[in-house]
Amino acid sequence: MTNFFVSTDSTCDLYANEIEKMGIGYLPLTITIEENGETRFMQDKFQTYDEYVNFFEMLKNPALNIFTSKNNTEIHREYFEKLAEAGHRNIIHFTISYQLANTRDNAVQAAEMVKEKYPDFNLVPIESHTTTVCQGMLVKMAVKLRDEGKTLQEAVDFVEDKKHKIQHFVVVDDLYHLKRGGRIGGTAAAIGTLIKLKIMLDFDREGKLRVIQKISGGKKRALKYILSNIKKYTFAEDAYPTVVHTGDLDGAKIFAEEIKKQYGIEPEIRIMGPTIGCHDSHNGPHYRLSRRSGSRSLHIRQQRASPLKIKTDIKPPLRSAKGVFICSCYSIDIR
After folding, report:
1. Burial class (CB in 10 A: 0-12, 13-18, 19+), 80
2. Residue 273: strand, helix, or coil
3. Over the stretch 120-142, which tens digit does the pLDDT of each residue have?
4. Binning pLDDT at 50, 70 and 90, where does residue 317 land?
5. pLDDT above 90: residue 210
6. CB within 8 A of 177, min separation 6: which ones?
7. Residue 238's pLDDT band (cuts 50, 70, 90)
8. DSSP letter at 224?
9. Which one of 41, 114, 175, 196 is most buried, counting C-beta atoms within 10 A?
10. Lowest mean pLDDT among 205-209, 227-231, 267-271
11. Contact at 8 Å (CB) between 251 and 323?
């Protein structure tokens, strides 16, 4: 018998077979799709790869309005109560970065409500400071600790430490989706597209998405920028690089191959889930680095801004397009 139970919402982008194999709790978000005056709903419960691919193909339709709503307190309460009824008492539950959605607050309130009925119910919410597969990696860490017989508090301390030691690179591949989301104007989108402008983002230490660079010249230059910024670091033996795409499998393979050439490590290639996929403009490389020692976060220096003005307060909802998202979790030694 394990010392604690691991749970997460669907912003972790774990596959259905992984969730089942790891024996964890999973709370899906609901996705709303509006088209021609009609509204339909779907949950992030894809079972096959084709479902992911078809979803990102659907996002190309400019007539669609697709968005998600965070799970409210009542949805969390019903879910947590089912866990309590199943006999789970010590639980670690993962949520998206607070800067993207304050899901953690709803989880806290719901856990307190369940505790009134089950006094020994003990749930610790982990606001991940990130999202998608990077959140999923934190979940996997907790599962590993669970299987090793660690206590709930040991798992909490571990992931709380690791989540602050991650650096991100995200390349926005298609400015049209920023325009459609109201983040930039039509002129900026047109000029940016003409010069093949790629917007480079990362998550800061507080888990907020921010612009760190604007790169003209297309994906190749964006990849060159990423590789030039990570080559100063040495991969640890337990490196776990991952390339995540939103429909561009060929592009993901190219990025993965370049990382393999430079570091001798073959990244895992994954496809992003719909919960984050319909909100993010992660249409280019996203690379995640981290410190293995020390408390300071690793930051990439803000470069001089391009004359093309792009808002830096990137928040959902943004629309995703075909692209690539690269990350590596707690696997870099800073020498």
Report:
1. buried
2. coil
3. 999 999 999 888 888 998 999 99
4. very low
5. no
6. 281, 283, 318, 319, 320, 321
7. low
8. H
9. 175
10. 227-231
11. yes
Phi first, then psi, for residue 319 (nearest 5°) are -100, 135
Residue 244: CA atoms inside 13 Å, Cβ hemisphere, count? 36
Q: What is the DSSP string of 84-97?
A: HHTT--EEEEEE--
- Which CATH class name applies to 170-333? alpha beta
Structure tokens at 72: 């409210």
Domain spanning 5-29+70-162, CATH class: alpha beta
Q: What pLDDT was estimated at residue 234?
A: 58
* Dihedral, 111, 82, 118, 108 alpha carbons, nearest 10: 0
Helix axis angle, 103-117 to 73-85, nearest 10°? 40
The DSSP symbol for 191 reads H
CB–CB of 195/293 below 8 Å? no
pTM of the full structure: 0.80
Between the two ends of the chain, the Cα-to-Cα distance in Å is: 40
CB 103 within 8 A of CB 70: yes
The one-letter amino acid at 67 = F
Q: Tokens at residue 135, please?
A: 């959140």
Condensed to tens digits (0 to 9), the pLDDT of residues 156-176 reads 999 998 888 776 777 776 665
The residues near 9 (Cβ < 8 Å, ≥ 6 apart) are: 26, 27, 28, 29, 71, 93, 94, 95, 96, 103, 275
Q: Could you tell me the residue ranges of all domains in the chain?
A: 5-29+70-162, 170-333
Residues comprising the chain, all counted: 335
